[in-house]
Structure formats: C-alpha cells, structure tokens
Amino acid sequence: MHGNNRIGFELSDKGTATLQSFNPAKAETRAGKFKGATSEDIEAAMTKAKIAFDSYSQTSPEKRAQFLEAIADEILNLGDELVHAAMEESALPEGRIVGERGRTMGQLKLFASLLRDGVWVEATIDTAQPSREPLPKPDIRKMLRPIGPVVVFTASNFPLAFSTAGGDTASALASGCPVVVKAHNSHLQTNELVSDAIARAAEKTGMPDGVYSSLAGEGFELGTTLVKHPNTKAVAFTGSLDGGMALYKMAIERDEPIPVFAEMGSINPVIFLPEKLKAETNDLAKTYAGSITLGVGQFCTNPGLLIGLESRELDQFCETLAHEITTSAAATMLNEGIANSFSKNKETSLTQNGVKLISSNNVETPRNGANAAVARVSATDFLSNPNLQHEVFGPYSLIVTCRDQSQLDEVITQLSGQLTITFMGNENDLKTFEKQIHSAEKKTGRLIYNGVPTGVEVCSSMQHGGPFPAATDSRFTSVGSDAIKRFARPVSYQNAPQFLLPDELKNENPNGIWRSVDGIWTNNGV
Amino acid sequence: MHGNNRIGFELSDKGTATLQSFNPAKAETRAGKFKGATSEDIEAAMTKAKIAFDSYSQTSPEKRAQFLEAIADEILNLGDELVHAAMEESALPEGRIVGERGRTMGQLKLFASLLRDGVWVEATIDTAQPSREPLPKPDIRKMLRPIGPVVVFTASNFPLAFSTAGGDTASALASGCPVVVKAHNSHLQTNELVSDAIARAAEKTGMPDGVYSSLAGEGFELGTTLVKHPNTKAVAFTGSLDGGMALYKMAIERDEPIPVFAEMGSINPVIFLPEKLKAETNDLAKTYAGSITLGVGQFCTNPGLLIGLESRELDQFCETLAHEITTSAAATMLNEGIANSFSKNKETSLTQNGVKLISSNNVETPRNGANAAVARVSATDFLSNPNLQHEVFGPYSLIVTCRDQSQLDEVITQLSGQLTITFMGNENDLKTFEKQIHSAEKKTGRLIYNGVPTGVEVCSSMQHGGPFPAATDSRFTSVGSDAIKRFARPVSYQNAPQFLLPDELKNENPNGIWRSVDGIWTNNGV
C-alpha cells in the first residue's frame, strides 16, 4: 500500500495523508493512510487526460480492446489481496465480492468484444451523387467519436463492478475517452489496488500516459473541482438523488455545460395482480422477502414499493411477507453513513400519515447493521403524500393497498420516474391490466414481468436508467453495452479523403463491421 | 385566415387579437390579426397532448408514416397561397420558398420511410438462458420508445423547413410524440396555413385529437409557460445562443428537468491550406463570396471565420474576396430585428482591436437589408479576444491571418464548439496539416473537405449540431434522420409475454426490421 494519488503512470505523494477507510463490520478505522489530492495533483491529472485524449482518441478499436482485456487480467492477478480489501471495506461477503470481480472482468471483456464488433459506432455512409439535380450530393459519412476526458464517481454499493474499473470506467475507456476516477472514501485500498492494475495494463498495452488517473480527497471539494474543470467533458455517477443533482447542477452552470450521467436510484414499484396473487400468495411473499433483503437491500433496484388490490390474498401475502422479514438475518451495511441514513429514512417513512409497520426483524442488529422492515399504507394516503416516494436505501419496503383498478391507475399515474417497474400477473391478469401496463411503461427504464427487479443483467438489451429522478438522462443506460454511448457523439465527415477517415468509415471496411451504406445494412465494403 | 390558436382539432378564439406579422421588404405591418394564446389555451393544448400521447405512442410505425405523408400532401395542396405568405413574411424569394417547401415535404417523407425501415428503434433481443449457471438469464428486449409531448420553437430563417412542419416537428411526430408548436411571430400566416394542413392530415389518417397544437403569443411569456409545463417532456429550438440558453436553463430548473435540443448557430471556421490556396486563389475567393452572401448570410452554417497562413496568396485571396463582396447584391433580411442585430453585431466586430474592414458592398441598402462585409485580423489579436468568436448572423466574415502552422494550431485549439469546420487543401496540404485536422474534429459536429459549409444535406449521415455552444447537446442532430433520436428513450422489457411487446420486439418480427438478436444482426424472426 502506497497511499498516493495516481496521475497517469506516476504516483504523487504531494498530499497530506489524512484519509483512512473504515471496516464497517468491526466498526473501526482501518490501518493505512491515503493522501488527499492537492490542487496540483488535480491539475496534473486533468492536463494529462487532455493530452492523452489526442492520441487515445485515435487508437484502433482492437488496441483499446486489448487494453480492456489486460485490465481484466491484472485485476484477476491481484488475487486474494483484492478480495480481502474489498470485503473489509464494504462488509460484503466473500462470495459476493468474488462474484462481483467476475462481473467486473466480464464487463471489461464485453466492451472489448463490442469494440471488435464495431456496430456500436453507428457507421453511416451516404455516397456522393455528383450528377444529382438541382445540386450535386456530397459524400457524407458519420460515426460516433469519443467526447473527451470523463470523470467517474465510484459507487458505494459495488466496490468493484461500479467502482474504479467498473461499468463507467470500462465504457468510457472503451469509447476512447481518458478517465479520472474520484476514489470512494469507503474503498480507498480497493481503489488503489485496482488503479494500479489499470495503470499496469495501460503501460503493457502501450496506452498514453494520462489515459487513467485516480484521485482521493474530501468528497465534495474534490468532486466540485473535477466537475468544474474545463478539461472534463462528461461525468458519470451512481448514488443518491442529492449527490447526483449537486453534480448535475454544477455541470450545467459551467461556461461550457457538460453531461452528467447520474443514476440516482428508485423505489422500483412491483404490482401484484389479483389472479397471480391468489394462486401463488405465499410463494410470492417468500420470493419478495428474498429480493427485499438481498445484499442488505443495498441495490438500486431493490423493490421498495409493493402494490396490490384490497383482498384477502393481499392480507395473506402481507402476513407471510411479515413472517419472512421477521425471521430474516440482520447484516452489516456498506458503511456507517448508509446504516445511519437507513435507520433515519425508515423512521421517517414509518411516521408518515397512515403508514403501519407490519414487520421488523427482531434479531440483534450488528454494528452498522440494518433491521429489515415492511410497512403498509392505503393508496389514498400514498396518493396524498409525495414523501412516500422517497427511496429508503436498504431492506425496507412499503406495501400500498389500492381500493380497485382505477385507484391502481391513479397510483401508477402519480409515480415518479423509476429504474424498474414490475408486474406479477398471469396471462388473464396482464390482459385485464393492459392499460395500467402501458401507463407504467412511461415511468420506467425497464418493465419486468413475473420476476424480481434485483439482478441487473449486463447485456446489450439492458436499460439501467429511467425517467427523472431515476437518472438525469433517460436516454442512456449505465449498465450493459449501450453504456458506451454516453461518452460518444456523432461526427460527420463530408468529402473526406480515404486516408483521413477513421477505419470504420473507409471504403474497404477493414474491420468488416456492419454499416448503413446508402440506406442498406451491410458489412461489405463500398 | 382565421387568426385563432389551434388546440388539437379545435380552434380557440379566446385570445385577444393583438399579433400581426410584418412584411420586411415593404417595411410594413401585414393585414390580418392573430390571437395570442390565453392561459386556458395553453393548458388545453398541453392536456390534449398528454392524453393524445397515450394512444399516439401505441400507433404502428406504418400509421405514423401515413400521417407524415398526409402532412406533406396537405402542404402541397396549400399551393400558391402558402408560397406567397411565406415570401411576404420572410422576404425570401419564390425559388427559395418553393425549394424549401420541397425540402419540408422531403423531410416528412424521409421520416415516413425511416419508420417503415424500422432500424432506428435499435431493437435488441437477448433471449433467455434458463439453464445458465449460477443464475438463469431472463429474456430481455430493448427498443427506443417516444419520450412524451414535445414543444417546438420555430426558427426565423427557414419559415417552412425549420418551422411549423419542419424537421423538429416531423421527427417528434415520427417518434410517437405529440407536438405543440410555438408559432414564430414573423410567420404567423404561414404557421396558420401549415398548422391547419397538419390538423387535416391528422384527422384524415385517424390520429388522436391533441397530437398537434399550435399557439401564438408574445414569445418569452408563452415560451416560458410551455417549457415549464409539467406535461412537456422535451423542447426543440433553433436560433440564437441567448434564446437557446434561456430555454435550456428554464428546463433544467424544473422539478423534473427535461432535455432542450437547442441548435444555437456557430461561426463555421474555414481553413485555407497553403498549396490549395496558391493553386486556386481567385476561384476560392469567388466560391466563398458566394457562400458568405448566400441567402443574405442567414444560414446557421454561414462561414463567419476564414483562416489562412500569412502569404502573398492570402493577400490576393482577400483582394479578390473584397472585390466580390463589394459588387455583391444587397438584400432584405428576414425581419427588422435580424437586420438591426446584423448592423449592430457587424459594427461591434469591426471596432475590436486589430480588426480591419477590407470590403463592404457599396450598393444602396434596401429597408431591413444587409450590406455584406469582410474584415481581417491577425491571429495574435484573434487569440487575445474571445468576442471575435461571437456569431454575426448575416453576410459577414472575418479573415484570420496566422503567422505559421503552430499559430494555426493555437487558433484551432482555442475555437469554441462549431456546427462545421472546413479544410480547403490538396492531398499534400491535408497530410501536412493532419494534426490540426484531428484537433479541429474535437470542436465540430461536421468536418468538411474542399466544399462550403452552407448547404446541409438531409440524410442519415448528417450531423447538424456540435460541441457547446453550437448546440446544447452534442450527442444529437437536428437535421437528418437521426434527429428522431432526440425524442425517444430506450425501454427494456424483461420476460414480457409476446402480446404485450411492441411489434418491433415480437419473435416473428412482423415488420421484418433489422435487429440484434443474441448479438447477431438479422432481419429474421427469433
């Protein structure tokens, strides 16, 4: 452990060593001090990023793919040291961390394969028509090109997969953008290990100095400086609504506004339709007790709102769910701040008008731990109180009882933007409630049928994002291969000579990628 | 002429008739009064738009294609009445208006064909793998879905092609979004004729009431109310930096921030490289005199900045250009405000340190007309004065003389975001200046070789937009078929039954569109 900030291939020991990470399970500060980045460190990292962009943006997709694969290899090479650091700093169990490491490597390899496939650049060629009347048509070719240096804010709840070399970093590097990571203060050692791995991979694969930097520091001040820096061209963030909105507003107020892709969580409503609920009352309750408490409820897609129609089955569902929650294990949360917020936000929700606690697990709470709970409220009370749509990050869920289908309609219409909305229903149910399903589609990035929202598949069809306030920009995803599109913009080349065109747009199509040529999809040359 | 506001299929005569358009060529107010929309009119239009979205977002691509084609037919049916109204209200000549009508109809038909082609929705299917270890993989399918009601601010400089039924309206309607147009006060009669045509087309093709509305009023107040209305989900605008930024900031400050796609113009730098300039000195000067004065310089892509290296050829180029400008025809501008701004902004530019007027056409200026002018400044003075990067909308261009290649490098590095940057050079030139070309690419949406920036081809490879301040969002275009992507967002469907999927994602692929299925591009079924 060196405790220094990483400025490209160099380490800076300029800062004062004041930062330490915390072991939430033991409730104690960990050994090892990390230096907070100085103004010169920040300036040096951003200057290197800008210079690196000149050459990095011109690297071939194959070269960038090799870089990403090398990062995955170097992460695996860190072996148990990484696994133990991440476990200590997050209180997550070994199986989860090993799984998350696999996901992190999988994401890097997914983007490598996306680069080789090449279709993501949306190469579009309209060839010249010199004899067109009244005016000749020029040759115009368009593709996505990288946007510039990206600042990545790492997330607390995925110390690997949404952190230093997580989805944001992987997709930004894939697109051709240098990355400057703001290390999460909860995972300083994990960050150092992974940052060093990225730097080794960059050197081994011949990437420019400055393609990757990592800075630590007091969150708000460091974050503000990075977002406001003129060399920064985009920001990625996963975390709270308050945190995301603070960055978003800062970025908009710059002389040159820049995009902030903030995924700010949601309450992920689940609608239990009557026939399905009747047929599988207890099974549904057990399945959802598992989803609510999975990973101590610390997922962006945790089901925080369960909605059903007034009925004997719903009462029975609540009873079984209450029982399951009461007997669920208590566990340590990611850090002290999150544990305290969970207690506070749960209490706030429970004291709202009409909200009744129906179950809380009664095991002894570990230090920095969470007691899972579920509560119930009438749709009438829910509809009159926007506070009940605030996310309670952790194992807590509110059950909303609707009088009838038309009140369910009202509840859906009044929902704010969500990452996911789920319908549990058999075919008959889904036909009866088709109007409500279409209405729900307008509020969400992902519409799930007969599953749980926890579990976000990393693939090309995944949309992890949604209408505000789930995310700042519903047109992009932070999970899956399309995450790369956040960091690219279309550039048209008019009458360009072949040697000045990127390979993706050359006549001979050297990479054999799929392109639109004069309106026809083809992987042939022109 | 009825002078009423259009609320879907109904006309409202609630407002007070206080608005009149102007004939800039005759410098007189035109006959005919138009009513300013009342608060109730605005509320009625926005409510209808929200309700219409429910059904309009579920229409088939074929139905929407028929609607767009019907709009084109109805516009043509307006015949000479439309052509004369647009000519009187804009001072543009008949040939231009007839051409622009053709372009407007062409755009509508382009989007109709895009809808039938279907690839624009980016349909992506990952089929289930129930036996995957450690966890089964669900079926996930994703496509672009419409974002909701769009408010369109019409542009002054294209009374048809960027106005009531222009590119913004056509692309928003194509995506499945209802449109509410804020009529341009310069083109109130043109707007009424076209709005009535759109409504007729909507009724004939069975579209819902509220799919289209048009409101007139004092610009700022009406615009503010529309942008802040909770039913508005996106805004499109073409015009000045000040106007665009005002809307952008308003939209960001809403409880639910929404995207504003503002194309705010640019100075479209043109770099004349030495060998080409030497070989074609006078021809280049003549070509560019034509581009600077085309349409009285009233194009977003007007070349406002010409850059060359200190040389005898550059002096000769300036001399010929000066001669051409001096003898160019003076002409009426689009409206009084634009004519006054042109005079003022030109004077401001001419009084900056080191700027020397080298030519101004000396014919008598018509009322509301423009005298074309070109001026010259050293790169040293240019680099020290950011004011010289402000757009002067109209026939004015500033020639920047660089000492050498490295100063040219500095000038390019210091450019703000542009719609276009053009290089005029032979093969040798382009090889010598390759670094500067790559540097320029970072500053622009479109990179042009050996052509003029005026003339924006409407096609799938066009990027009309660029880094800020050319546009508020460099990742989207306002011209060409990709303009539709501004008004759509990805939605994932997980484990959805076939009957609840949009046709684009159904197994049998009823429309035969190209899709990604398990990573393979195909137009077959699953």
Automatic annotation (TrEMBL), chains A, B:
<protein>
    <submittedName>
        <fullName>NADP-dependent aldehyde dehydrogenase</fullName>
    </submittedName>
</protein>
<dbReference type="InterPro" id="IPR044151">
    <property type="entry name" value="ALDH_KGSADH"/>
</dbReference>
<dbReference type="InterPro" id="IPR016163">
    <property type="entry name" value="Ald_DH_C"/>
</dbReference>
<dbReference type="InterPro" id="IPR050740">
    <property type="entry name" value="Aldehyde_DH_Superfamily"/>
</dbReference>
<feature type="domain" description="Aldehyde dehydrogenase">
    <location>
        <begin position="17"/>
        <end position="408"/>
    </location>
</feature>
<dbReference type="InterPro" id="IPR016161">
    <property type="entry name" value="Ald_DH/histidinol_DH"/>
</dbReference>
<dbReference type="Pfam" id="PF00171">
    <property type="entry name" value="Aldedh"/>
</dbReference>
<dbReference type="GO" id="GO:0016620">
    <property type="term" value="F:oxidoreductase activity, acting on the aldehyde or oxo group of donors, NAD or NADP as acceptor"/>
</dbReference>
<keyword id="KW-0560">Oxidoreductase</keyword>
<dbReference type="InterPro" id="IPR015590">
    <property type="entry name" value="Aldehyde_DH_dom"/>
</dbReference>
<dbReference type="InterPro" id="IPR016162">
    <property type="entry name" value="Ald_DH_N"/>
</dbReference>
